[in-house]
Amino acid sequence: MKNVSVGDLEIAYVETGLADGPPVVLLHGFPYDVHAYDTVAEILVASGYRCIVPYLRGGGPTRFLSENARRSGEQAALGADLLALLNALSIETAVLGGYDWGGRAACIVSALWPERVRGLVSCGAGCNIQNITQAGNPAPPDEEARLWYQYYFHSDRGRAALEKNRRSVCEFIWKIWSPTWAFDGQTFDRTAASFDNPDFVEVVIHSYKHRFGGVPGDPALVGIESQLAEQPDIMVPTIVLLGADDGVTPPAPVDYDERHFKAAYERRIVHGAGHNLPQEAPKLSHQLFSNCRENLKTRDVIGLNIASPDCGIGHREHLRLLYWSDPPHPARHARRQPVRQQRPVRAEPGPHCSPYPRWVAINHWISLKPLQFPVPYQRTYSQPHIWRCAAAIPE
Question: Rounded CA gap, 381 and 305, in Å?
Fold first, then answer.
């Protein structure tokens, strides 16, 4: 067990594997903890990966460092915690994986800071970013029934249940969310110890109230929440893994989330598994993390500074070497479909070569291996006049 301080939070995490191995960050959900990834991490480490599994705020040994710190459970806090953890551990890029709350954190970092993410494995939901501005719109009755616990936690009665009977409440949730998972008492008790965190109830209650607009969020996170309110797309390679027997978010017959993923994307449904996928199907989860990493092994995310010739590529001659669209108008960009391009396209000098003050990622994947020109080393630029081009594909 290790700890790292980030702002008002001391994050406890389990780290296994070689220090110089490819980093994978695994994030648990509610009401679970790091033990959800025990088997997955063990298999990944045996394959040479460096695995980092943090306890989310309000769980296990993770602690707030100040009595005055807001015990926020809002989605922006989860994303900010993950980004801060990457920074504190000096991890420039990592494969991210998670489900439930942890999947939301992984999706948020992938959407807002894609240069930090080599690949995403999102379990239990596809694009797991809450649309809080639309939270007042009713869902179909069967879906509303599955969300009973959220409305329960809005009441004083629900809060009292978490304070006095949190283990029985959480064990019941385990059973109905994963009806085909025959976990034993020892498995549950190992995780249930994390619910004794002194801030568990406060963070959980805030999370389920905030997502419906019932309580204000942390003022320090308003900027992130504002970006999430725009429902940003995810521009990194993604595999979505859904349990066919998930009792809270069963897979829809139609993939409504696919439109939010603008890079390589795959959706799989796992039969015989429920909501807690990493713990119920650890071997498959390991395989998907490995596949995600292998597809990126010899390819990289490249920052091209079109105002500087030192990137190794002529900024006018080869700006469109990786097939590219003109600077997008937001409305047009929302309608644009991914393009599959298997060979480089000759540069087309023109207005698109002018610096444009925003980040944009290409919508398709192209192999870097056959390209015969100097490829710049991996680097992320911070100037506003940069095109950020992503490149990766299975050949």
Answer: 7
